[in-house]
Amino acid sequence: MAYRRVLLKLSGEALMGEQGYGIDPAIVKSIANDVAEVVARGTQLAIVVGGGNIFRGLKGSAAGMERATADYVGMLATVMNAITLQDALERVGVPTRVQTAIDMQELAEPYIRRRAIRHLEKGRVVVFGAGCGNPFFTTDTAAALRAAEINADVVFKATKVDGVYDRDPAHYPDAVRYSTLTFQDVLSGELAVMDSTAIALCKDNAIPILVFDLFGPGNIGKAVAGEAIGTSITPAG
Questions:
Q1: Which homologous superfamily does the CATH classification assign to the domain defined by 5-234?
Q2: Using one digit for the tens of pLDDT, what is the confidence trace for 171-185?
Q3: Where are the domains positioned within the chain?
Q4: pTM of this prediction?
Q5: Residue 155 β-bridge partners
Q6: 8 A C-beta contact, residue 99 and residue 127
């Protein structure tokens, strides 16, 4: 495997499939099977999951809710997704721990960096919920932060598209996909990869990012193996 320890960022929207809302059990099962194969090969895997399939803080704020309150509701949504992922992973034989940035002792462990690393060393998957535990930060930023804290080799951003494009491929058929980019390219070009805080965190800590299609057959395993899929974002071109 090309990577020893990986932080996988999943969007909440990815979990809802074509439903438009909520969680699609078939999607979650497929993700669990892909993760199980990766872990069986010896790669240590941590996951940060979003909550946009249930509630998005910015959307709630735009509808009139106070922004900090809306973000806390969004954090709770990520915990729902994290527990769902834990259940699916354990059903396929992958020992999994959920750690949350907001204390929820009846449901999950509190986030403790050393404990998270120890779980990974023992072959357990760790799912981080509740983002950073603070409003005004996205789960992309949480992924970058946790990746730095656990000394991850790479951040995988698994999305609904097969990489980073110069413009939205859903609206522009002639959009061009990049195979490689630098952090500076992303920041200066304001490319829609992750928010600027997350990109800056990865840049400052020299953590590469790989953006790829979550739904391509075996793509998580291909990414871990170092195959050329998606778009690679690195400190230097």
A1: Acetylglutamate kinase-like (3.40.1160.10)
A2: 888 889 999 999 999
A3: 5-234
A4: 0.93
A5: 7, 209
A6: yes
Q: Which long-range contacts (CB under 8 A, 24 or more apart) does 189-197 make?
A: 191/164, 191/166, 192/164, 192/168, 193/157, 193/164, 193/231, 193/233, 194/9, 194/138, 194/140, 194/141, 194/143, 194/144, 194/157, 195/138, 195/140, 195/141, 197/137, 197/138, 197/140, 197/141, 197/144
- Euclidean distance between CA atoms 185 and 207, whole angstroms: 15
Rounded CA-CA distance 102/134 in Å is: 9
C-beta of residue 229 within 8 angstroms of C-beta of residue 216: yes
Distance CA 64, CA 119 (A): 41
Task: Convert the pLDDT of each residue in 88-123 to its tens digit.
Answer: 999 999 999 999 999 999 999 999 999 999 999 999
CA atoms of 32 and 17, how far apart (whole Å): 15
